[in-house]
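Good day; I would like, with your permission, to put a structural problem before you. I would ask you to consider whether the tokens describe a fold that such a sequence might reasonably adopt. The full record is reproduced below for your convenience:
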Amino acid sequence: MHSGSRCYININGKIRQVSCFYLFFRNFCFGVFFSNRKYPNGYKTCACDYAVIQMLSLVVLAVMLTLLGLFVYQLFDSKLEKQRYEQMFNDFILKYDRRYPSLEEFQYRYQVFLQNVKEFEAEEAKHFGLDLDVNEFTDWTNEELQRIVYDNKNVKTDGSEEVRFEGSYLESGVKRPASIDWRDQGKLTPIKNQGQCGSCWAFATVAAVEAQHAIRKNQLVSLSEQEMVDCDDKNNGCSGGYRPYAMRFVKENGLESEKEYPYSALKHDQCMLKQNDTRVFIDDFRMLSQNEEEIANWVGTKGPVTFGMSVTKAMYSYRSGIFNPSADDCAEKSMGSHALTIVGYGGEGEAAFWIVKNSWGTSWGASGYFRLARGVNSCGLANTVVAPVIN
């Protein structure tokens, strides 16, 4: 029976009052049509207003069609996304000449690639103007990525080289330029590649010494990182090193040319330094202030300097823009420590940056270089800045 907005049904011989709306959906869920059909026990469904029933039916239909549409869209979008990633991987394989030994390795590397791409795309979305992209590291696992950086725990220091230079970084009457890029002066050797060896400390040191030698002696010579990897006993070859020790080594032993002592991305059992070969020496070195304005004074007037920083995973995928990881990411998501060379500085709008030379080859970053946020001690950049001195 039906009365107003309430319905009455017979349940076990007793008349019960219920909501017609409730009863409609109850009957709908049990597949009962609103046509006054008899149930086996003989009672009738409520005679709800047909227009209301029709409206509710349309609402249900609309909801079902909407859900179906969303499902089809997500299915189609997921298919397009899958095709995009597969095409990216195919392009990657062709560009970097990847040749996996088995189908299992191919599938494994694709999953690693996919995870890395999704991670850097999510990171890129958080930082306006930062471009992260596929490069030769995109199919590397985290463990493989960590091989080209080092753990500070492996580097032992005695504190003997940690006295900071407190003198004037600017000569009397000299002002540093508003910006500088020592590449424009022709004082830098081409980008090098350390390979899967944690020898960044040697590459950073050599890059700064090469530049200082070119600035002071007007001779640009590519020097040997392998010499320090093999012969500097205070450092740890492919397992990291301390740049003040490396500078001390160059001061006392000099560096052969890269041509005379070429790089092999591993530590040999013996030092193969030839006593009669021509070498480049430095007269001294300085550990600079942690004040980035003072560091800029030195770079702008004297030349490139070395520094160390914590590496976040996003850095491996850097392509362009100003890299400015958060302090939390540097502290909590560090992959290890890395040594590099500051070769200039500048600004973009209100954002100040360092121009940094890396040792990961030309396919990484902006042809081997990147811009790092200046004035915020990005990932500990200013903590240990070491500069060579040639009189």
